[in-house]
Amino acid sequence: MLTALQAQLELGDLEDIIHDYRPIASHCLPARMVPTLPCEGVQMHHQSLRGMTPSEAKQAFLNLIQSWPLHKATIFDVMVCLISNNLLALQGINEFTFWGKVCEIFPQFIEKI
């Protein structure tokens, strides 16, 4: 749906069949997702957006992103290693704000004081 909204923003209403949405998808999706993009599904969503103005498409794009649970989250590349039943080692964390989320996700590993 993000790619369809981006296509509506960049191209406007779908007039001709677009066989390859990958160039548009590269503007709004991570590079690893672009090669596996289901173009037929994007085309169907893009067609359903007919009549949507660029400003409406941009607002819908932002609303969709803001509805995601990880909106405004900072993602860290972290390696998690279980050393023993009671000890969890995390490498690569340099932000204290992330620790609270780790405590929520892995409460069984956090020792109660």
Largest sheet: 2 strands, antiparallel
How confident is the prediction overall: mean pLDDT?
79
- The chain-level structural class is mainly alpha
Distance between the termini: 46 Å
Beta-strand proportion: 5-15%
The residue fraction in helices comes out at: 40-55%
| Structural domains: how many | 2
Sequence stretches where pLDDT stays below 50 over 5 or more residues: none
User: Helical stretch count?
Assistant: 5
- What is the subunit arrangement here? single chain
Shape: globular
Radius of gyration: 20 Å
Task: Describe the secondary-structure layout.
Layout: H1 2-11, H2 22-25, H3 39-48, H4 54-66, E1 79-84, E2 87-91, H5 97-105
Q: What does this molecule look like?
A:
The protein is mainly α and about 110 residues long. It has two domains: about 1-65; about 80-110, no CATH class. It contains five helices and two strands, in the order H-H-H-H-E-E-H. It has a two-stranded antiparallel sheet. A hairpin with a 2-residue loop joins strand 1 and strand 2 (about 85-90). It is globular and about 45 Å long. The chain starts with a helix and ends in an 8-residue tail after the last helix. The mean pLDDT is about 80. InterPro entries: FERM/acyl-CoA-bd_prot_sf, FERM_2, FERM_central, FERM_domain. It comes from Rhamnusium bicolor. This is FERM domain-containing protein.
